[in-house]
Design brief:
single chain, about 110 residues, Transcription Regulator spoIIAA
Amino acid sequence: MELRFEVVVHGDLPVLAVGGEIDVYSAPELRQKLLDLSHGDHTTAVVDLSDVSFVDSTGLGVLVSGLKRFREAGGDLPLVVTQPQILKVLEITGLSTVFAVHPTLAAALAS
């Protein structure tokens, strides 16, 4: 399944909406999108995973690398997670305590 991306700026905060499956084949695309965002004028960006149906360990690694880049710049990389299976993966791996995970985009934007 092809990974889909859309970047929308809310106020001064970019939101990367991702759709599809994040796996070993599609993770390089996500890595590049996060790199592009981190090289911009923003120190924080939101990743909206609402339309992601699957994420493997490679995809998780890309998200963690992105988080490190944003935090090194003094910012953050909060996630929007609405799919129970994605939330479960984050909880099992302990990443739900590393990332700021929000149930809606509105909640992520308000934080």
